[in-house]
Design brief:
This protein is mainly alpha-helical. The protein folds into 2 domains: 401 residues, no CATH class; 184 residues, no CATH class. The protein has 18 helices and 6 strands.
Length: 664
Amino acid sequence: MGCCDSRVKDDRTQENTEERTCTDVFWLVIYILFWFLLVIIAAFSFVYGNPIRIINGYDSFGNTCGTKYNKPMGNLNFSGLDTSERPYLLFYDVKNLKEGLKICVKECPKKTLSTVSDIYDYHKFSKVDVCKYEFNYEFLKPNQNGELLAAPLGPCPSLPVYEAKPVLNRCVPKPFKEVTEAILNNFYDLLNGWDTMEQILGDLYNTWKEILGLAVFALVVSLLTITILHCLAHIISYFIMFGFAIAGIGGTAYLWYTYFDIKNSLDKTAQNTLLLESVRNETAFFWYSIISTVLTAIILTIVIFMRKQVDFLANLFKETSKCIMHLPGLFLQPLCTFVVLTVFFMFWLFVVLCLATSSYPGTSTISGVRVDDKGTTPITAPTANAKVMNLSFVEKINNFQVVEYVDATWIKGMWWVYFIGLIWTSEFIMACQQMVIAGAVAHWFYRHKYESNNHICYSMGKLLKYHLGSVALGSLIITIFKIPRLILMYLHERFSRGKENGNECASCSLKCCICCFYCLEKFIRYLNHNAYTVIAIDGSNFCYAAATAFDVLSSHALQVATINSLGDFILFLGKCFVTAVTGIVGLAIFKRNPELTFYAAPTLLVCVFAFFVAHCVLSLYEMVLDTVYLCMCQSGDAPDGIQMQNLGVTNNGNVQQEEPELMN
């Protein structure tokens, strides 16, 4: 007695390539149209976005500091300059940072400049410009009344020009007694006033090379894990269990060490010089440590209770390895998926960075020095005893234009579309991997089990020719089921802030809904996983394949629960092992980078990417295991009398009769 009725057994156990047709074409068209939208948004972000502008800052003329090629702003003077040798931003008025002029400088002032003569001497001996571009410093010589040129709007900075140090590529006055606490607070309020998302994205942009390198490192660790799965199936359960135990305990200990290290450092820092990002670092790592401790404790408890099932797990992986040995090309699938995912992640990250910095450049006219109607006496002067002077040279610098960027809110809002695109496309890429593996294993199982045909190319051809629509639909369903859960999580966060207003009941209800949607999402993901196998076997549409897979799994619920709970748990530990090792290495690297202000963000992103990479690699075994079992059910080779203590499987329906090893 088989898993399915006689019609399914007779008609669909053998692949019929002549009758195979394209499946779920409508959903493939929807996916293509969605990607057209992503490309259009990317084009706008490339035109209006500039991630370097966040990192380095920009002057009043639209030039991004430290950049060789700046785009000219129409006919605006001093725009489009080469600032590659001017990496730091200097503010002309330290008391009013947003209203004063700002320019890019070669280095921050290394000493306090109290008079224009000091500015002249500093430029003469250090060749460092602190006045406006192309300014003639001869006007600052003694007996020229150059004090009138030191103003918030230039052409020289207001006096005194304090000794400064670069903080996030901005020249910030050093804390000494001449600098008032209010001035320092203005700078740190400006830095802390940046949009939090822009600060995080700035750190991500600064560490994209490290993130890419750590993604490669995660691939290496994942391939090492899967190689051990293939070569040392009998001891792999011990290896992964103890490997995760060590990595989990070590990672949790390192997180707590990092938290206390940051806390001790902040305790020794003056209150008025604290950046909010440093405080956020402390809070983030505090919660990271708590979450890691709880998760490690839970999983270690499960490991302890499952240690008696090690022999069963070893035999289970041996059955999977038997298929892998006949299909060594399957090892290339995680690598291909990794390459595609990495390219997509880098593209997605760059577009989101550009979206976060998208703004329209505008101009406004200001006066560097204001004079009266006769053009000889200043209306405003730095001292009450301003002298009458010849201001003929001032006419050239009296009026000029500066750049002001206006936020393009409608473009920034498009990052939500890219958030959906991240989920859908990632699921689509991984679903393609599952379909290729399922098709190769099914083709090997049913028709050419003992031949050396290229099953991988056969399966990939069938995917590209017939089943991309089914993959698009399956990945879209996962994305749709994620959206309500994310919305409910957001609402729960909002209600949690109002517990004192009597929202405990609503908060509890939302938690239950979030849990239900999470379980539903996991079920749909598992059903999709098996539906791809049915599609690879008989070429049916996604909905029919999902229904068939559900019938097969429900008729053998006990056996499927045993196989998948134990096998998937071991694979999950392998993913956690890769994520923990990569996260520890990433944290150690980012912690030593002085340019980062919120290195908790890139550390978290590295862990997410590492888990994605490990998921792609280790899902290979999971897909092969489920595919072989489902193929046996489809062909009627999985008897109803499988016992929990034996789990024996016979393979009477293959082209050549061979009794496989028992899965104990």
